[in-house]
Amino acid sequence: MEIERKFLIQNLPENLGEYPCREIEQAYLNTNPVVRVRKEDDKYYLTYKGKGMMAREEHNLALNEESYYHLRDKADGNIISKKRYLIPLTNPGFQEGFPTPPEDYTLTIELDVFQAPFTPLVLAEVEFGSKSAAEAFLPPSWFGEEVTYKKEYHNSYMASVKLSSLH
């Protein structure tokens, strides 16, 4: 089960280069249900995602490079390329009443900086172990508008839009 919230980011952290970064390319074979192929640095995956916006079923299967490119060529729509920075969020905030996590509790912000044609879009995703944690999460002050429930900011939707409608 994937449980995540998404936020727009207007200003990149000044120390972004200090964090691990992955080069990601993904293409969609189907959007309902979501079936995609992804190249993440030198690893390749086929992913199935069930229905849902904040919480949904997700299964990943390893692919080899040849299989990835074979399936990518069959994909519909836009291929999405982005740089993903992995930023630790130590001592994240939660709403009052939510159990206080241990002092060493850390979440990971997956900060996606999209490449053309989706530039200058930057999204932050934070994954959680439970729906209750996701719902109680208080985002850091540098996060912008929450877009978890806006389909326009889901990669599967972005892959299917006509590029002329983005501008």
Brief overview:
This protein has 167 residues and is mainly beta. The protein is 12% helix and 44% strand.
Mind explaining what this structure looks like?
The structure is a single chain. This protein has 167 residues and is mainly β. The chain has one domain: Beta Barrel (Hypothetical Protein Pfu-838710-001). The chain has helices spanning 65-72, 131-136, 155-160; strands at 2-8, 21-31, 34-40, 43-49, 55-56, 58-63, 76-90, 93-94, 106-114, 122-127, 137-138. A nine-stranded antiparallel sheet has the order 5-1-10-9-7-2-3-4-6. Strands 8-11 form a two-stranded antiparallel sheet. A hairpin with a 7-residue loop joins strand 9 (106-114) and strand 10. The radius of gyration is 16 Å and the shape is globular. The mean pLDDT is 94.
Order of helices and strands: EEEEEEHEEEEHEH
Strand order of the largest sheet: 5-1-10-9-7-2-3-4-6
Shape: globular
Strand content: 35-45%
Through-space gap between termini: 34 Å
Can you give the mean pLDDT?
94
In the CATH hierarchy, what is the class? Mainly Beta
The CATH architecture would be Beta Barrel
Specify the number of helices. 3
CATH homologous superfamily grouping: Hypothetical Protein Pfu-838710-001
Largest sheet: 9 strands, antiparallel
Keywords:
single chain; 167 residues; mainly beta; Hypothetical Protein Pfu-838710-001; nine-stranded antiparallel sheet; two-stranded antiparallel sheet; 3 helices; 11 strands; 12% helix; globular
Helix-strand layout with pairing:
Layout: E1 2-8, E2 21-31, E3 34-40, E4 43-49, E5 55-56, E6 58-63, H1 65-72, E7 76-90, E8 93-94, E9 106-114, E10 122-127, H2 131-136, E11 137-138, H3 155-160
Antiparallel strand pairs: 1-5, 1-10, 2-3, 2-7, 3-4, 4-6, 7-9, 8-11, 9-10
